[in-house]
């Protein structure tokens, strides 16, 4: 019987365009285009949106409660008002907790959101916490803490006031030097260090010394925590003036034509 015919099957190779390689290249192209569009969008977005997007990639779990992860880069677009001042308080507390050297000072730092703004108080202890005892000279802890606060607060447009307070014990170091001078000198010492550590030159609104006239614990006038320096971060509010221009908080009101200037209150 004749042998059966031998059938040879020839494998035909399909071109790359008939396989899946083109899909990988196309996916890479689409990804690159999407990245380009995101970059172009971010370049034209506000600074606050840029900080928020950057904060997401640094903290994708959303544990940070601030826009972004810190105040750095927020600049003029992040204005602390009554609605978001708590965010600054939380961020400052987080920054203090992150520095091990300042951990033991947490009980001597009190932050309160008040009608005036965020009040940050550095409370003294019996042995002296931030200042040398009976002196306007900042010690190492005071310099480190005020430097940290200055760096953070220098990133916001809000103005600040700095106050010095003492307890009710009369100052006996010098005959012509009292609690009035000590409280004012400590406030100025804090101002000098903070302006050299991050606060802008025009950011300090007032420096005030109150001696023992505003005790933190009036029922214990000799309590060490009455000796303190307070930094107040003022709110930014805008009101419309008669001429249509905005006026920020802290601006002096305009006098009516022909009116007498207001009488200045007596001061110490």
How would you explain this protein's 3D organization?
This protein is an alpha+beta fold. It has a domain at 79-248: OmpA-like domain (60s Ribosomal Protein L30, Chain: A, 2-Layer Sandwich). It has helices at residues 21-44, 47-58, 85-97, 140-153, 179-195, and strands at 109-113, 117-123, 160-165, 204-209, 228-234, 238-240, 246-248. The strands form 2 sheets. It has a 5-stranded mixed β-sheet. Strands 6-7 form a two-stranded antiparallel sheet. Strand 6 (238-240) and strand 7 form a beta hairpin.
CA radius of gyration: 31 Å
Average pLDDT, rounded to a whole number, is 78
CATH superfamily (homologous) name of one domain: OmpA-like domain
Q: Helicity level, as a percent range?
A: 25-40%
Strand content: 5-15%
Tell me the name of the CATH class of one domain: Alpha Beta
Which H/E pattern describes the elements?
HHHEEHEHEEEE
- What structural class do the secondary elements suggest? alpha+beta
- CA distance, first residue to last residue: 132 Å
Oligomer: single chain
Largest sheet: 5 strands, mixed
In the CATH hierarchy, the architecture of one domain is: 2-Layer Sandwich
How many helices?
Answer: 5
The CATH topology annotation of one domain reads as 60s Ribosomal Protein L30, Chain: A
Give the neighbour order of strands across the main sheet: 1-2-5-3-4
- Low-confidence runs: 63-70, 72-77, 239-268
Overall body shape: elongated
């Amino acid at each position: 019987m004749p042998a059966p015919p031998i059938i040879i099957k020839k494998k035909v190779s399909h071109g790359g365009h008939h396989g899946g390689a083109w899909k990988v290249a196309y996916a890479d192209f689409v990804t690159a285009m999407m990245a380009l569009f995101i970059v172009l969008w971010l370049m034209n977005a506000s600074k606050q949106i840029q900080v928020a997007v950057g904060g997401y990639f640094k903290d994708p779990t959303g544990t940070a409660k601030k826009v972004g992860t810190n105040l750095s880069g927020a600049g003029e677009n992040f204005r602390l008002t009554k609605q978001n001042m708590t965010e600054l308080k939380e961020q400052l507390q987080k920054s203090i907790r992150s520095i091990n050297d300042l951990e033991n000072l947490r009980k001597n730092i009190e932050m309160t959101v008040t009608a005036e703004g965020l009040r940050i108080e550095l409370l003294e202890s019996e042995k002296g916490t931030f200042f040398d005892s009976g002196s306007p000279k900042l010690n190492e802890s005071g310099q480190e803490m005020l430097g940290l606060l200055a760096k953070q607060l220098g990133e916001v447009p809000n103005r600040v006031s700095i106050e010095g307070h003492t307890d009710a014990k009369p100052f006996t170091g010098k005959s012509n030097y009292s609690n009035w001078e000590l409280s004012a000198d400590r406030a100025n010492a804090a101002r000098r260090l903070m302006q050299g550590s991050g606060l802008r030159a025009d950011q300090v609104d007032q420096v005030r010394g109150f001696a023992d006239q505003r005790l933190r614990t009036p029922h214990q006038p000799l309590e060490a925590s009455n000796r303190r320096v307070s930094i107040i971060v003022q709110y930014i509010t805008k009101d419309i003036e008669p001429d249509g221009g905005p006026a920020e908080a802290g601006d002096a009101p305009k006098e009516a034509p022909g009116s007498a200037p207001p009488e200045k209150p007596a001061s110490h």
